[in-house]
Amino acid sequence: MANCTNVYIVLNDAEKVAVGTICVVIAPFGLLVNVLVLVVIVSSGNLRRHPSYQFMGSLALADTIACCCFTITFLDFHLFKTDNSFQRTKYLLKLSGVTIAFTGSVGSLLLMAVDRYHAIYKATTYKVQLTRKKALLGIVALWSVAAFISFLPLMGWSCQTCLSCSKSHLFPYVDRYYLAFYTCLMLVALVLILVAYALIMWWAHQYEANMNADHPGLARMRIDIHLAKTFSCIILMLLVCWLPVLSFMMTDVVTKELSKPQKRAFAFCSTLCLLNSGINPLLYTLRCRELRAALKSLVGSLRRCKGCSSSAIN
């Protein structure tokens, strides 16, 4: 165990300051915005009964957990770890918290993509097929699967020492076969999300072209403005934030050793996942007209309550 620190802790002092600053800047912002989204959805009767907003609430919950668990675990690992603190069970428990948060986040994105896909392709039966009960069952199933997958290392699918021959070079005690399984699972989820949004954009393009046959230029303009901005940002952020990390994880699986520069690059790329959790509310929720209206209503209610309290005191 004495060499664990030399194998996994590769950042120098300047790099530690850099990643620490990145986390300290991103995490509070992401936590604040995601908690705000959760409060707005829970406080609005109309929103919390709608399946689409239940999925958004699931995403906000996952990203809230990610902002907390990832930041604490990441900073502890790269800034404060010592040989004596490399305890297997404690480390795997912290890693499971991070894993369940990011699995829940990507899984919620997948549920939202599937929800939007059915809303477009099966618009006439959408409200009948996707009820509030089914949406809640889907969310419970997602988090159950995420928890099961995340705690597999603690349940035995891991290495007994951080220097085992089948270990990951990025995560202590993590078996490379488990890392391959998890990486493939995340890649499949990302591909399904991208396919769903690509089909939505294709269908919307066809629909607009048919509805505006006499004004094709107007149809193209609507596609560019309304859909391209949202879906292009979604796809771009998914690729930018997740592909670098998943690429390093897959490289760890297929190669015998990773160099220290590669491990340093992975540490910085990992902060992109935290960035994704902070940006998700801006892309998926606060762009929604209904949620913005609910937010304004909540703020108005709080102002009225504050005004009533001030009047009572006077």
Care to describe what's here?
The longest helix is centred in the last third of the chain and has 39 residues, at 216-254. This protein has helices at residues 4-8, 13-43, 45-48, 51-79, 88-121, 126-129, 132-150, 176-211, 216-254, 260-285, 289-313. It is globular, with a radius of gyration of 22 Å. Helices cover 80% and strands 0% of the residues. The chain is mainly alpha-helical and 314 residues long. It is built from eleven helices and no strands.
- The structure class reads mainly alpha
Q: Judging from the principal axes of the Cα atoms, what is the shape? A: globular
Computed Rg: 22 Å
User: What fraction, in percent, of the residue positions are helical?
Assistant: over 70%
Q: Characterize the largest beta sheet: strand count, sense, and whether it forms a barrel.
A: none
Summarize the entry for a quick read.
Helices cover 80% and strands 0% of the residues.
What labels describe this entry?
314 residues; 11 helices; mainly alpha; single chain
Task: Provide the fold topology.
Blueprint: H1 4-8, H2 13-43, H3 45-48, H4 51-79, H5 88-121, H6 126-129, H7 132-150, H8 176-211, H9 216-254, H10 260-285, H11 289-313
Helix pairs in contact: 2-4, 2-10, 2-11, 4-5, 4-7, 4-10, 5-7, 5-8, 8-9, 9-10
